[in-house]
TrEMBL record:
One of its GO terms (molecular function) is tRNA N(6)-L-threonylcarbamoyladenine synthase activity. It comes from Aeromonas allosaccharophila. Keywords: Acyltransferase, Transferase. PANTHER family: TRNA N6-ADENOSINE THREONYLCARBAMOYLTRANSFERASE, TRNA THREONYLCARBAMOYLADENOSINE BIOSYNTHESIS PROTEIN TSAB. It comes from the Bacteria. Transmembrane segments: none annotated. Residues 31-153 form the Gcp-like domain. Belongs to the KAE1 / TsaD family. TsaB subfamily. This is tRNA threonylcarbamoyladenosine biosynthesis protein TsaB. The keyword rRNA-binding does not apply.
Length: 233
């Protein structure tokens, strides 16, 4: 059986990353590079392909960070993934930014219960709750965009110690502390493409890869109601 080869790219937040899975081997690049994604992502892709000694045409699929996150960042990521997938003739797999962050908390912290929150500006956060099942983070309920206080009121308090990840907890930590009896702060602040790969592999094996033209971003916030703040995404 040929080794499964999946490339992952993510530019949905301030971080920019690319990673490649070849069988059980992983190659990755990651950098926090706000507003510099368009210049950095393709060299990262080239670097991981060279590390593995393969070309785009050898891939089985390409995964991308589908959001939520910066509108501009999400669009860059899906655009790059679509361009690469067209060239390689392979399908795409969209991976939640929040799920990738939760998976990162498992990889780095051994977390099994994770709350993820990205600062969405305008006094809101992108939020998701995840639980570890068979080594993969699974969404509990829905991913939402919400006022932090309203989120706490709606969700209530989880019992015990829960790991929290993302910039939403940095900005609204005092309010969001009401989500659990005790929050353990993870070292994860942004998603990494390498943490998309376990989720992408599961999706591939489940037949969830889609043709390039069917790949879609997930913004959570309706673009029509978006009011861009000066100097912000």
């Amino acid at each position: 059986m040929n080794e499964l080869k999946i490339l992952a790219v993510d530019t949905a937040t301030e971080a920019c990353s690319a990673a490649l899975l070849v069988g059980d081997k992983l190659f990755s690049r990651w950098e926090e590079a706000p507003r510099d994604h368009t210049r950095k992502i393709l060299p990262m892709v080239q670097a991981v392909l060279e590390d593995a000694g393969i070309s785009l045409s050898d891939l089985d699929a390409i995964a991308f960070g589908r959001g939520p996150g910066s509108f501009t960042g999400v669009r860059i990521g899906i655009g790059v993934a679509q361009g690469l997938a067209f060239g390689a003739g392979v399908p795409l797999i969209g991976i939640s930014t929040l799920a990738a962050m939760a998976q990162g908390a498992y990889r780095l912290d051994g977390a099994e219960q994770v709350l993820t929150a990205i600062d969405a500006r305008m006094n809101e956060v992108y939020f998701g709750r995840y639980e570890l099942i068979d080594g993969r983070m699974q969404l509990v309920g829905d991913e939402v965009v919400s006022d932090p206080a309203a989120l706490v009121d709606a969700r209530g308090k989880l019992a015990g110690r829960v790991t929290c990840v993302g910039t939403g907890f940095e900005t609204y930590g005092e309010i969001l502390s009401g989500l659990a009896d005790e929050l353990a702060v993870s070292q994860v602040r942004f998603p990494a493409a390498e943490d998309m790969l376990p989720l992408a592999r599961t999706a591939w094996l489940a037949g969830e890869a889609v043709p390039v033209e069917q790949a879609t971003p997930v913004y959570l916030r309706d673009k029509v109601t978006w009011k861009k703040l000066p100097g912000r995404e």
